[in-house]
Structure formats: C-alpha cells, structure tokens
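Input record (one chain):
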Amino acid sequence: MLPTNANKHSGSVALVGAGPGDPELITRKGWRLILQADVLIYDALVSDELLADIPVSIPRMYVGKRKGQHSMSQEAICELLIKQARLGKRVVRLKGGDPLVFGRVTEEIQALQQAGIAFTLVPGITAAAGCAASCNFSLTERSIAASVRFVTAHTCDDRETPWADLARRDETLVFYMGLSKAPRISLELQRHGLPPDWPVLLVERGTQRNQRSVRTDLANLVDCIQQHRLESPTLIFVGQVVAAQQINALLKAA
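The corresponding structure, as predicted from the sequence alone:
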C-alpha cells in the first residue's frame, strides 16, 4: 500500500503477523517479505522457533514489550520504523499473532502514513485460533456457541469491561493478556450469572513445542493458575466448547 504522500525514494515497511508461535503457521506472504527484508524489527511474542528459521544474515532489532518490561516505547518504535525506511531499507515489523488483534498496529500505520512511508499490512493467525487448533476444539459450535468474542484484559484508558454482556452461555470468550486479571475475570463472570463450574481452558505458549493446556472452571481459575505456575503468554478460553467431553468428541470425529 502506497500512501498518496509517500516518498518514492524511501524504503518501505511491512507490518507482518508472525502467527501464534509454530513457525509453520506464518503466512507465505509474511515469510516472503521476511526473506526480502533489509532489517527485521520484532516483538516479544515472536517465538524463538520462528526466529531460528530466519536467516542470520538479516539484521534484527528487538523492541519487545512484556508487562513492566518495555525495551522501547510505542512512540520510539514508530520513530525507528520511519528512520529505517528513510534510509531506503525494506523493513519488516514482525508482531506475534495477528497484528490486527490487540497488536497496536493502528499507531504504527498512522505514524507511517503521516511520514509518507509506503507500507504493507500482512495479517497472521491469531493466538485464539492457533491455540484452539492445537487443542483440537472449535471456537464456535452451532448448538452451544454461535459466536466467539476476543477480549483484552488490559486497556490503555482503563475502560470498564462490560461483564454483564460477557456473561453469556451461548458464546465462547477468549481473554488475551489475562493472567494477572484472572481473579477479576472469575469474580465478575460468576457475579453476572455464569455458574462456578463453567468450563475454562488455559493455554500457555500455544502451538509451540513447550505448549501447556490445563482445564479448570471459573471457581477454580485462580488456584489453577497458581498451582500450575502458568506464565505469559497464556490465553484463557471460557465456554462450553472447552468442556472435556466436547474436546473428546471432536477428537474422535477427526
């Protein structure tokens, strides 16, 4: 995509989704752009397995963010993308999962547009879909979950989460970045009508070789996280699709 005010003598930026971790789950387009890149700027959720497959001849810059540990501010990342592109480089900004889902890609798009830098946006497989596939269940099911909702447990402006609207029995909830908010998730969903034994599945490092998945329920969610010492990145799936019998049925049908 070339903005109308783009400087044709500058480089370009490809905003690429790396997928959930398994290096085989990156798109063909994303992989092609990586191999053509002059510099790779990547975040904390890009898996070591994928990074190991990328030729070492491509220079890399780490701009990862973990909770309380930001190697670089979002503003500084945008400035870095612009600076590298203005040097005439083909830049790949590699983001874990799908940059269109809780990936803060809008800020980078706006910065590139304002600077007149040509850019390409390449979606990736989001963690929810990747983890569901690796655990052999469907995010939706006609009889029990006609819809799925992706929910971020962290917002920049501290907006209140619509818990009453989320506490439904006919859909699947997927909480991203939710480990530290697990007590609130458990409390509010129960308080607004879901039963204590409502099914929950926790998936740590989904699709990667060291993936762990643990079944529990809303009442025992916090204790389960502590007992198994789960760490980020971990997705929290809530709903009937993750009930043991549902997963087993899908496994038999496969």
